[in-house]
Write a structure and sequence with these properties.
The chain has 311 residues and is of the alpha+beta class. Helices cover 51% and strands 10% of the residues. Strands 1-2-3-4 form a four-stranded antiparallel sheet.
């Protein structure tokens, strides 16, 4: 049996979440196959916001508020722009065993899909800053106006300023050149050349993978991720409002200084190409094994899920 999956976001936005099919795998185990919709969650959200703001004026660049940009980023790329929306759907009953520590809440295949979708969305979101900054600023305002509000987030200004300061050496052409020169002295020119050739074809996605891994993946979401158990019910809501707030708040707090720094790097006119600006930032992730997910996809926008069902 096949079920259509939909997520109601607003009165005017119903996300197509694909299909869920009850079937048997080659080993005759009962499984549920969750197949993504033709359009990703992110694409559907962006299309909705674009249509909703056709007549809206473009906010001036001087009016960019990075807390607002961060709110919008979390809403568009994570909360509504990924499979997270399915797991946190309020229209489906909560999975009460979630609160028993021995019962894992999110399957590995589900985590993989969220990693892929959030990172792909963030990659496209960052690219938009470069290719169409006016549209980006317009979409930020639209996300705040037309999407449901996120849980209240009170940003830690002291932590934000400290983290932003740590990223300042990436914000200037001279700082980036100094960083790359220092790095070359440590690891050698051959290593730099080889790595540049390796990462250049997927530069923005590698950057997105690193940022999402650092700000989202190693956070509260891990507390409900483990193992292979799935309750005998159709795609239940397994992220409670309390957990949702913790995940989104933590991600936003961590993301704010990074989004601020990257916006500056991407938009500031220095005579450099986008590649020249971003490569030093990507090397930061590559050289930090703990926050560089080398096994994450560089091309996928979404992925199907196979779930074993409890007997």
């Amino acid at each position: 049996m096949t079920y259509r999956l939909h997520i109601r976001v607003t009165d005017h936005l119903l996300l197509d979440a694909g299909t869920l099919e009850e079937t048997r795998d080659p080993e005759n185990r009962r499984v549920r196959m969750i197949t993504p919709a033709p359009q990703t969650f992110y694409q559907q959200v962006i299309a909705y916001l674009t249509d909703a703001t056709t007549q809206e004026k473009v906010p001036p660049q001087t009016a960019v508020d990075f807390q607002e940009v961060t709110y919008a980023t979390v809403a568009v790329c994570l909360r509504w722009g990924s499979y997270f929306a399915v797991l946190a759907d309020k229209e489906v009953h909560e999975w009460t065993p979630l609160f028993q520590e021995e019962v894992p809440g999110i399957r590995d295949t589900e985590m993989a899909r969220m990693n892929i979708e959030i990172s792909s969305a963030f990659c496209q979101w960052l690219t938009l800053i470069h290719t169409d900054p006016k549209r980006f600023r317009k979409l930020v305002k639209a996300a705040l106006k037309f999407l449901p509000p996120l849980p209240q987030i009170i940003f830690d200004k002291q932590s934000y300023q400290k983290e932003l300061w740590l990223r300042t050496f990436f914000n200037s052409k001279a700082g980036r050149a100094e960083f790359m020169e220092s790095l070359q002295n440590k690891v050698g020119e051959d290593f730099i050349v080889r790595k540049k050739e390796e990462i250049t074809p997927h530069l923005m996605r590698i950057l997105a993978n690193g940022v999402i891994n650092e700000t989202y993946r190693y956070g509260p979401i891990e507390n409900i991720h483990a193992g292979s158990y799935l309750p005998d019910s159709s795609v239940p809501s397994r992220i409670s409002p309390c957990v949702e707030q913790e995940v989104l708040t933590t991600t936003a707090q961590r993301l704010l200084p990074t989004v601020h720094a990257l916006y500056r790097i991407i938009t500031k006119k220095t005579g450099e190409t986008l590649e020249e600006k971003i490569i030093p930032y990507v090397f930061r992730f590559i050289l930090t094994d703990l926050i560089f997910p080398s096994d994450w996809s560089l091309t996928e926008e979404t992925r199907g899920i196979k779930l074993l069902v409890r007997k």
